[in-house]
Design a protein that fits this description.
This protein is α/β, with parallel strands linked by helices. Helices cover about 30% and strands about 25% of the residues. It binds pyridoxal-5'-phosphate.
Amino acid sequence: MVEPINAAAVGALADEPLDWRFKGLPASWWGRTAGQISSAAPKLVREEAAGPVCVLRAGALSHNLATMAGWCRDRGVELAPHGKTHMAPQLLRRQFESGASAVTVATISQARTYRAFGVRDFIVANELVDAAGLRWVASECDADPEFRLMCWVDSVAGVQQMAIALQGAVRPVDVCVEIGLPGGRTGVREAAAVDEVARAAAECPALRLVGVAGYEAALGHDISPDGLARITAYLLQLRSAVERLADMFETDSVVATAGGSTYFDAVADVLSIGSVGGRQVRTIVRSGCYLTHDHGLYARTSPLREGLRPALEVWAQVMSRPEQDLALLTMGRRDVSFDQDMPVPLELPDSRVTKLNDQHAYLMIGPDQQAAVKVGSWLRFGISHPCTTFDKWQMIPVLDDDDRVVDLIRTFF
Ligand SMILES: Cc1ncc(COP(=O)(O)O)c(C=O)c1O
């Protein structure tokens, strides 16, 4: 069987020497490779780290991989996890080992990164309009019969541009018609226009119409009854497009794909169609953030919020206590996500981060905790939104429950 990702190429990441390029890591690790450190399993001693430092929790990662894999199996859906979340081939390898059928990416550059590690199955969850990117897709398709990539299209103009860029390609590029939400992001808004774009794609020899796609969280993560009703109504539009276009698809099975980390249950409910026009429907969810979950956005909104465990933390030190209820920390916007919520102090439930500068966090300390927060104290923070925390770290230690290093994860942003 062909490997979904080249295990040797991923394994070779363990040979990378550790040094000053990887912020946060103890200088006592420099000169040894990532693999040597993982084998020696040193305890990550905070006093040796040059804080802040970002860590992953091994137990939570394994738990989340198994939980999501079990959920997908039970619901009969495929998982093509969004690889832009972590951009880490080592983590993608574990997702493939847990049953993922493809990686989702947002850009050709992200696809190229994973392709460099031998990945063969891609969903590019976007329209592709750049000729250079399309030529790269065509050359990979023509060079490797095992290379499978589908992208999205939401206009006749897009179909025409793809056709021009793909002139001379042997194998057609697989496309899904993307359906969008009013006020949302990309994607065709009206049913008649959906059909027109689908027809243009089906008639274009350079393209192969394989399914229907969408991204239901383009407007946010509202899980109130009204919010969920809006999401269901949107997903029903995708479902009816799959049914309406049944005879136009050019493959034996039809793709129906949606689903970030907030609404994948609704996607499975609405898009598990079984078959249309004698063709099997492959329902594919694309959650990326399930893997590490978090202490904020997804802790509140994931359908598996009772089941998943937060796996990503940033540790920082108190550098200043200029006011009774204020601490300044060695962690800022360069180190932790702030696009959804502020970091969450894990040991101080009555305290909260109110602001981040580039290299500082402002911690307002609850009255009962003021004596405990001293200059030099180390504090652990949960994050809200994995994607925008991962991109700030290039080498992330994975720790067991005793804070021993069991792996080091290299990211490529
Ligand atoms: C098109 C698309 N699909 C899937 C996802 C993955 O969603 P999440 O980040 O909630 O895991 C995203 C995230 O932005 C996305 O834009």
